[in-house]
Design goal:
- By secondary structure, this protein is α+β, with helices and mostly antiparallel strands.
- It has 3 domains: 13-79, 2-Layer Sandwich (Uridine Diphospho-n-acetylenolpyruvylglucosamine Reductase, domain 2); 86-197, Uridine Diphospho-n-acetylenolpyruvylglucosamine Reductase, domain 3 (2-Layer Sandwich); 199-405, Vanillyl-alcohol Oxidase, Chain A, domain 3 (3-Layer(aba) Sandwich).
- It is 30% helix and 25% strand.
- The strands form 5 sheets. The protein has an 8-stranded antiparallel beta sheet, with helices on both faces.
- The radius of gyration is 22 Å and the shape is globular.
């Protein structure tokens, strides 16, 4: 690229040569030649057309909460944070249409006046709706797919700057591809979600013997609305979270505000920060701290609105890798990871998280065609995670694992084409909508091919 400063398109906020962009986890970065901040659909169209005139690629970024390089670019970075808000609600169907840059944490207040909620959420709500769906973000529960399964329609700005509506009646054949499109098909500007009546969750959080949880894992997945557990390496305990759905008019039993603050800020974030800091200075302290954390992390019982229970605050930066495996392989894969850590003698400063999700029809969903278990490994962002992630990934590949698109992995198009039955169909849609690879970057070149 020339070092000549670009003249940005009129009427769109932005910066020419904005310097280095980094994601939240500090695991990916890029040096875009321009950062544009459109606030209307028309400005997004103009930005894409302008980039094409300049011969530049375009990548969309929301909250920057993907750990992979999926949003990194040396072309034009399109920040859609200003494209947010509730655009309309159909009271008869319970469907709500949002601007694509709306953050997940904004959604509950926007839906509350209509008595609606999202059917399921993950434990982080900083992401934009477009980012969460495009990367396959999910929660837990065998009756619930990832967030993209709630998506009933969307509007894309395609590579030539035109608008393309995709829903159950218009271009319906593209919907299974577009729901989890990795940002490779165009810029999502509007999204219609199928919502559900607002509901409460009865949360039961308790430490249990790991052996007991392992012995009953599939039963817990199958019998509970939402179940997950965290295992702190070097400890015999699993921190379990069981959430049972209740109607909105059930009796609320909230956590005391001070106690909730203690749980969120002191125990969760405080323990993680202390462990992560000490692990770099005094590694032998990791296991004793993990043993304490396993006993106090996620311990309590309460009933609150769904989003307040699903979501946890995560202030400590970390790197994460997560794989989905066939449900029946979840326990075996987890146990192999546990034995790997023990065999290597690694002192790991973050817990391993185990969840599940229903099978769905979306072509690049990690749960496409199969109920899935999810195993996520983390490390403090200043720690060297490479060997740990690499060896865990080898275990996941041996179980036909599919990597979360927004988290760290080394899988390439050759591997992924063997685990996704509709991989070739997705590539055909990409060739149709973006033949010039306007939305390409290094990450997409690796996972989808050139």
């Amino acid at each position: 690229m020339s070092t000549t400063t670009l003249t940005l398109p009129n009427g769109i906020g932005g910066t020419s040569r904005p310097g280095r962009w980094r994601n939240w986890g500090r695991t990916a970065s890029g040096r875009p030649v321009a950062l544009l901040r459109p606030t209307t659909v028309e400005q997004v169209q103009a930005a894409v057309r302008w980039a094409a005139e300049q011969g530049l690629t375009v990548k969309t970024v929301g909250a920057g909460h993907s750990f992979s390089g999926i949003a990194a670019t040396d072309g034009v970075l399109l920040d859609i944070a200003g494209l947010d808000g509730l655009l309309g609600v159909d009271a008869d169907t319970g469907r709500a249409t949002f601007a694509a840059g709306t953050n997940l944490y904004q959604v509950p207040a926007l839906l509350a006046p209509h008595g609606l909620a999202m059917a399921n959420l993950g434990d982080i709500d900083r992401q934009t709706l477009a980012g969460a769906t495009s990367t396959g973000t999910h929660g837990t529960g065998l009756a619930f797919g990832g967030i993209a399964t709630q998506l009933r329609g969307l509007t894309l700005v395609t590579a030539d700057g035109s608008l393309l509506r995709i829903d159950e009646t218009t271009n319906a054949e593209l919907l299974p591809a577009a729901r989890i499109g990795l940002g490779s098909l165009g810029v999502i500007v509007e999204m219609t979600l199928q919502c559900v009546p607002a509901f409460l969750l009865h949360a039961i959080e308790q430490p249990l013997p790991l052996d007991q949880v392992e012995a009953t894992l599939l039963e817990r997945f199958q019998n509970e609305d939402h179940f997950e557990f965290h295992w702190f390496p070097g400890t015999p305990l699993a921190s379990t979270k069981t959430n049972r759905r209740l109607p909105a008019d059930a009796e609320v039993n909230p956590r005391p505000k001070f106690g909730h603050w203690i749980d969120e800020e002191v125990i969760s974030n405080g323990v993680f920060q202390a462990t992560s800091t000490l692990s770099r200075a005094i590694p032998p302290l990791i296991t004793p701290i993990n043993q304490i954390a396993a006993k106090v992390f996620a311990d309590g019982e309460f009933i609150e609105p769904s989003h307040q229970v699903f979501v946890s605050r995560r202030r400590v930066r970390f790197a994460e890798q997560e794989y989905a495996v066939p449900l029946e392989a979840t326990l075996t894969a987890f146990q192999e990871v546990r034995r790997l850590i023990e065999r290597k003698g690694w002192r790991i400063d973050f817990p391993i998280e185990v969840r599940c999700a229903a099978a769905d029809e979306n072509w690049l969903s990690t749960a496409h065609g199969r109920a899935s278990g999810y195993i996520a490994v983390h490390r403090y962002f200043r720690q060297d995670y490479r060997e740990y992630f690499r060896e865990v990934e080898a275990i996941m590949h041996a179980h036909d694992g599919r990597p979360h698109w927004g988290k760290m992995h080394s899988a390439d198009a050759e591997y992924l084409s063997g685990t996704y039955p509709k991989f070739g169909d997705f590539l055909a849609v990409r060739d149709r909508l973006d033949p010039q690879r306007r939305f390409q970057n290094a990450e997409l070149a690796r996972v989808l091919g050139a």
